[in-house]
Amino acid sequence: MSGYDNRVIPTAMQYHGRLALLWHDVIVERALGTLTRTVQRKAAVVDPQSVITAIDHFCKHREWAMNVGEEKGSIPDSVVNEVSWTRLLPPGVSVITLEFNPDYSDTARQVIRWSGLEEKVQKVEGASGTWIPRLKEHFGAQAFDLVFLDHWKDRYLPDTKLLKECGLIQKGTVMLADNVICPGTPDNLHYYRSHLEYTKAENVLGKSVFLGY
Description:
Blueprint: H1 8-15, H2 17-26, H3 32-42, H4 48-61, H5 69-82, E1 95-99, H6 102-115, E2 121-125, H7 128-131, H8 135-139, E3 144-149, H9 156-165, E4 169-177, H10 180-184, H11 186-194, E5 208-209
Parallel strand pairs: 1-2, 3-4
Antiparallel strand pairs: 4-5
Helix pairs in contact: 1-2, 3-4, 3-6
Keywords: Catecholamine metabolism, Methyltransferase, Neurotransmitter degradation, S-adenosyl-L-methionine, Transferase
Pfam family, one: Methyltransf_3
InterPro entries: SAM-dependent_MTases_sf, SAM_O-MeTrfase
């Protein structure tokens, strides 16, 4: 076990967003190999649910990380059901995920492979601002049913606008944005709440629905 109190760290991060980012960049990066080994030891192969459970347990009891976790995880779970997905991703449904950090990307790739979802989850490594305009051409994507933002907070609003400009948001697209309260994304929340084409953002994940142009 790590030499710190797992109850103290999340509390400190709640009130010190920059400290959370520092912890994540310095400490958590060193734990990536341990996380991968934990998944391979604790989770069954080709069992996405057991992989999620192993990661949640690791982040809660072993090494605190910016993980959605069980409590907030119920929100995207409910949204997934709303847009007719399942954890196993039925035929015709796929996920495109962008990651800027090469180390995180490599860890994600290993976890996705262990989950048995390589053919359904498309990994992209690079900056969101660079990749969003290329998604239609590269993947043949038309528009997304669900967009989950969980990256640098100052990119939430520019990337939301860029997704719209590129025609990747359609009527009914559900927008989820993590950490809108802490460290906080006031400009993004204001945008959702002040533009009539979106429903007002709700819950701790800043859920909003695009209503159309």
